[in-house]
C-alpha cells in the first residue's frame, strides 16, 4: 500500500481530482501535489508544492518527503493549455525527463504510475481494428501531444530498465469525456456545427472521467505492473456522436481539413493538433482485454453512455438557433471561398 504519494499536474482538473481522491485512500498517509501554479479547485487534504518538474528541484521534493509513489499526470494535451507548442513540449518531454531523473535517484521510490494515451498508436488507413498493448503504431504520431506521449513512453521504458526495483504502470487512456472535464473532444462536439472529413466516419472510444480516475486510484493502491489500454466498452462513429449531440455536420474536403482545424483553433473555438485531425479522419480502436483480465478493472460507463452523459451535462442536444448554425457554416466556408464544399 502506498504511503507517500506525489501527483504531478494538480493545477489541472484531473490531476487535482486525483490528489483529492488519494487523500481518502486507506493506507495513504500523505499526498503531495506539484505544479507551477496553485490549483483552482479543492485538492482535499493534499499538500500543494509549487514546483516545476522541468527543474531539478523536483528531486529535492521527492527526497525530502520520502515519496514512495509518483503519479505522473503532468503531460499536457494542447498548446493552448501550455502557452504554446514549445512550452508544451518542454513540460511534457523535458519535464518528464527531469522527473524520471529525480525518481531514479530516490531510494524511497517503490512505484511509478504514468497517465498516457491511446494516441501513441497513431491513426491511419492501415490500422488494425483494435490495437493491443504489444502492437507498434502503423502510422506513428509525428506531432503534438501524441508524439510527446510516445517520447515519454520511451523514457519511462528506459527508467524501468535502470530501476528494476520500481514497479512501473502505464495507463493508455482513450479520450476523456464526461459532465465536467474539458478536453479537445468536448470542445469539438460543443461547436454549433461539427466539421468532418468528407468520405470518412471515424470510430471513437471514450473513457468517463470518473472511470479514468478510478483506474488511476486502483493502480496507485494496488500493484499492477505493465501497460494497459483503458477505454469504455464499444465504439461510436463520428456521425452517430454528432447526431446524439444534436449537431449538424459540415463535410470538408480532406485537403482542406487541416486548414479548417487551424482556423478553428486560431478562433479559440477548439484546440486541435494535426494528430487530432488525423484521429477524426481515421479514428482508432483499442483492445481492453488486459484491462479486464489482468488489471481487473471494469469501467462503469460504456463509450456511448459516457458520450450521452457529456451531452446531457452540457445540454447540447437542445435545438440551436438556425442563425447560429448558419453563421458557423458561413465562417468555415468563407475561409476558402466556398472551396470547403469541393
Verbal overview:
- The protein folds into 2 domains: 4-177 and 207-230, NAD(P)-binding Rossmann-like Domain (Rossmann fold); 237-341, no CATH class.
- The protein is built from 13 helices and 13 strands.
- It has helices spanning 13-23, 57-65, 79-82, 85-104, 144-162, 184-189, 209-221, 238-244, 254-266, 274-282, 289-293, 303-314, 322-334, and strands at residues 4-8, 30-35, 47-50, 69-72, 111-117, 167-173, 175-177, 194-197, 203-204, 206-208, 226-230, 236-237, 249-252.
- The longest helix is centred in the first third of the chain and has 20 residues, at 85-104.
- The relative contact order is 0.13.
Quick take:
By secondary structure, this protein is of the alpha/beta class. Helices cover 41% and strands 16% of the residues.
Strand order, largest beta sheet? 3-2-1-4-5-6-11
CATH superfamily of the largest domain: NAD(P)-binding Rossmann-like Domain
Poorly predicted residue ranges: 336-342
| Secondary-structure class | alpha/beta
Give the CA-based shape.
globular
Number of discrete helical segments: 13
Q: How much strand content do the residues show? A: 15-25%
Assembly category: single chain
Helix content: 40-55%
Amino acid at each position: 500500500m502506498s504511503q507517500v504519494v506525489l501527483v504531478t499536474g494538480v493545477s489541472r482538473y484531473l490531476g487535482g481530482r486525483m490528489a483529492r481522491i488519494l487523500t481518502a485512500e486507506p493506507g495513504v498517509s500523505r499526498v503531495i501535489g506539484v505544479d507551477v501554479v496553485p490549483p483552482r479547485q479543492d485538492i482535499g487534504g493534499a499538500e500543494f508544492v509549487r514546483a516545476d518538474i522541468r527543474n531539478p528541484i523536483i528531486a529535492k521534493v521527492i527526497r525530502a518527503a520520502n515519496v514512495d509513489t509518483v503519479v505522473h499526470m503532468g503531460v499536457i494535451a494542447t498548446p493552448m493549455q501550455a502557452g504554446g507548442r514549445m512550452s508544451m513540449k518542454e513540460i511534457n518531454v523535458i519535464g518528464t525527463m527531469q522527473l524520471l531523473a529525480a525518481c531514479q535517484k530516490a531510494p524511497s521510490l517503490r512505484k511509478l504510475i504514468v497517465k498516457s494515451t491511446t494516441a501513441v498508436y497513431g491513426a491511419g488507413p492501415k490500422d488494425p481494428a483494435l490495437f493491443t498493448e504489444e502492437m507498434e503504431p502503423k502510422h506513428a504520431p509525428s506531432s503534438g501531444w501524441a508524439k510527446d506521449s510516445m517520447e515519454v513512453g520511451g523514457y519511462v521504458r528506459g527508467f524501468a530498465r535502470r530501476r528494476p526495483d520500481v514497479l512501473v504502470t502505464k495507463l493508455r487512456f482513450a479520450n476523456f469525456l464526461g459532465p465536467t472535464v474539458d478536453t479537445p473532444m468536448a470542445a469539438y462536439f460543443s461547436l454549433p456545427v461539427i466539421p468532418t472529413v468528407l468520405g470518412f466516419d471515424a470510430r471513437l472510444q471514450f473513457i468517463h472521467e470518473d472511470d479514468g480516475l478510478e483506474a488511476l486510484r486502483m493502480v496507485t493502491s494496488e500493484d499492477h505492473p505493465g501497460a494497459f489500454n483503458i477505454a469504455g466498452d464499444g465504439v461510436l462513429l463520428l456521425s452517430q456522436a454528432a447526431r446524439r449531440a444534436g449537431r449538424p455536420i459540415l463535410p470538408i474536403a480532406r485537403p482542406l481539413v487541416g486548414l479548417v482545424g487551424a482556423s478553428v483553433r486560431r478562433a479559440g473555438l477548439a484546440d486541435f493538433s494535426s494528430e487530432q485531425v488525423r484521429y477524426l479522419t481515421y479514428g482508432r480502436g483499442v483492445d481492453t482485454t488486459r484491462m479486464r483480465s489482468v488489471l481487473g478493472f471494469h469501467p462503469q460507463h460504456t463509450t456511448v453512455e459516457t458520450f450521452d452523459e457529456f451531452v446531457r451535462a452540457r445540454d447540447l442536444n437542445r435545438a440551436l438557433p438556425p442563425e447560429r448554425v448558419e453563421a458557423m457554416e458561413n465562417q468555415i466556408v468563407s475561409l476558402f471561398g466556398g472551396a470547403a464544399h469541393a
